[in-house]
Amino acid sequence: MRRIYLDHAATTPTHPEVAKAMLPYFAEVFGNPSSIYSYGQEAKGAMEGARTRVAELIGARSEEIVFTSGGTEADNFALKGVAYANEHKGNHIITTSIEHHAVMGACKFLEAKGFEITYLGVDEYGMVAPQDVQKAITNKTILISVMHANNEVGTIEPIEEIGEIAKEAEICFHTDAVQTVGHIPVNVDKLKVNLLTISAHKFYGPKGVGALYVRKGTKLVSLLHGGEQEKRQRAGTENVPAIVGLGKAVELAGQEMGKEAERLAYLRDELIKGLRKKIDHIRFNGHPTTRLPNNVNVSVDFVEGESMLLNLDLEGICASTGSACSSASLEPSHVLLALGLRPEQAHCSLRFTLGRGNTEEDIGRVLDVLPRVVAKLRAMSPLLKTQK
Ligand SMILES: Cc1ncc(COP(=O)(O)O)c(C=O)c1O
């Protein structure tokens, strides 16, 4: 049975050209980029090439890119780094109730250390209102962090407008762009951000590598202390093969992104249309138009998300019930609850995120399998029986 992978927001397969580009940097060009002899300098050259590519993709300067171990580290660096660098100015941070756990967890940590966090609500589509950000600002606000696009429901947030507000108020502004970089255009000047999080494995790069864009002049306290790597902002010998892979993934995304986004949006819309036609009592979550081209999040009344997921897996279809990090827990998704779904509706949700390998045939297969799975599960659903 051919497996159909529809969970690209969780991770993507490494592009074969990315894997090929990385290979020489394991055993041939294995030098430490801090070493001054040729082995080291060759590795350093490759790393700096990747830095330039990342910077170019987001309209930044290469000296503003700090490589990290991924999105989680970049988010933690942004949040904790700004908080501790500015605690003499204030202790208030504004974020939203739909952020990824990497931002949420850093905020909870800072809250326990005495920082005050405002978690802004969102509307029924998962959209943050820029005027709510404006209203939340106090003379103690040192940081605003709002994600570019939500990983569960796909809503793209009004980052430009929030950036304008932050700039006007001279407050540092961070966005977690893990779900957008490499998929839709991202430009740090247009978005007016000081800090922006990137993760390679979300756009066909390797896992365990990412970057934080740090606008020149932004003050951050480092998380890791040791050597002088990354201009003393992030100690530790760099993961050269992974960084080279990130650079290659960025290069490929730059070439393919526009066309691919159009193709995926078409497939996404076909999936939504088909599901709407074939299954009753469903609702689509996230913004109807201002959304990622590859995301479909659907709540199917009276059927547990986990049951649908397992039944789809038996038919070779991989999807998700929420973010990968929370899919092991039975807590309803904090994002869906923030959109106003009741816990039982949140438990009935499925996320499909499309990618490079998906075709119309894959969408056809989901539209064949899922209605059957739902009908079978509904036939034995205690949830449905209590409704009747
Ligand atoms: C929006 C968002 N931020 C951060 C992360 C964490 O990135 P990483 O897996 O590279 O640590 C993810 C991954 O799921 C994400 O979707």
Quick recap:
This protein is an alpha/beta fold and 388 residues long. It contains 15 helices and 12 strands. Bound molecules: pyridoxal-5'-phosphate.
Q: What are the segments in which pLDDT stays under 50 over at least 5 consecutive residues?
A: 323-327
- Provide the succession of SSEs: EHHHEHEHEHEHEHEEHHEEHEHHEHH
Any idea what the radius of gyration is? 21 Å
Strand content: 5-15%
- Going by helix content, strand content and strand pairing, the class is alpha/beta
Shape: globular
Strand tally: 12
> What are the bound molecules?
pyridoxal-5'-phosphate
> What multimeric state do the chains show?
single chain
**Side-by-side strand order of the widest sheet:** 2-8-7-6-5-3-4
The total of helices stands at: 15
Major pleated sheet: 7 strands, mixed
Mean of pLDDT: 96
Name the helicity range: 40-55%
The N- to C-terminal Cα distance equals: 38 Å
Q: How is this fold's topology laid out?
A:
Blueprint: E1 4-5, H1 16-22, H2 24-27, H3 38-57, E2 65-68, H4 71-85, E3 92-96, H5 101-112, E4 116-120, H6 130-136, E5 141-145, H7 159-168, E6 172-176, H8 188-191, E7 195-199, E8 210-214, H9 229-232, H10 240-278, E9 282-285, E10 295-300, H11 305-314, E11 317-318, H12 334-338, H13 343-346, E12 349-353, H14 360-379, H15 382-387
Parallel strand pairs: 1-11, 3-4, 3-5, 5-6, 6-7
Antiparallel strand pairs: 2-8, 7-8, 9-10, 10-12
Helix pairs in contact: 1-10, 3-10, 4-5, 6-7, 10-14, 11-14
The structure holds pyridoxal-5'-phosphate.
